[in-house]
C-alpha cells in the first residue's frame, strides 16, 4: 500500500512540474522569454480597434522585427512605434496625462530591466477594453516574465 501511494505521489509531482512549465510557456511564449517576444505578446494583446489607422501600414513589419530585438535600442524603437500607433482612447486618462514623462523614462532606459518596467507601465496604462481577454488572463505571468529579464 505504501509503495502504491509513493508511486502515485511521485507521478503526481511530474504532472505538477509539467503544469508549471506550461504556465511558463504562456508567459514567455514558445520561443523563450526574450524581450522581443514579450513586446510582441503585448502588441498581440491589444485589440485591433485600439490602434490608429496608420498601424495597419506598419504592423506586419513591426511584428516581423520584434523577433530580432535583443537590445535596449531595438526595444525602445519597437515600444515607441507601438505607443505612437495607439489611439488616445485606448489609454487611461492618467497614462495620457503622464505620457510624455513615461516616454522620457523609456528613452532613458539603460537596461532591459528598465524596458521591462516601461512595458509594465504601458500595460497598466491601457484601458481594460483595449486588451484582449487572453492577454488579461495571462497578464500576471507576462509581468513575471518581464521581471525575470535583466
Question: By helix and strand content, what is the structural category?
Answer: mainly alpha
Percent of residues in beta strands? under 5%
For the secondary structure, the number of strands is 0
Biggest sheet details:
none
Order of helices and strands: HHHHHHHH
User: What is the total number of structural domains?
Assistant: 1
* Average pLDDT, all residues: 84
Residues in helices, as a percent range: over 70%
Shape: globular
Q: Measured on Cα atoms, how large is the radius of gyration?
A: 18 Å
pLDDT under 50 segments (min length 5)? 4-31
Total helical segments: 8
Distance between the termini: 48 Å
Walk me through the structure.
By secondary structure, this protein is mainly α. Helices cover 71% and strands 0% of the residues. Helix 1 (2-28) crosses helix 8. It is globular. Residues 4-31 have low confidence and may be disordered.
How does the SSE layout of this entry go?
Elements: H1 2-28, H2 35-44, H3 55-66, H4 72-84, H5 93-97, H6 99-107, H7 112-125, H8 133-148
Helix pairs in contact: 1-8, 2-4, 2-8, 3-4, 4-7, 7-8
In short:
By secondary structure, the chain is mainly α. The protein contains 8 helices and no strands.
Main traits of this protein?
about 0% strand; about 150 residues; globular; single chain; mainly alpha
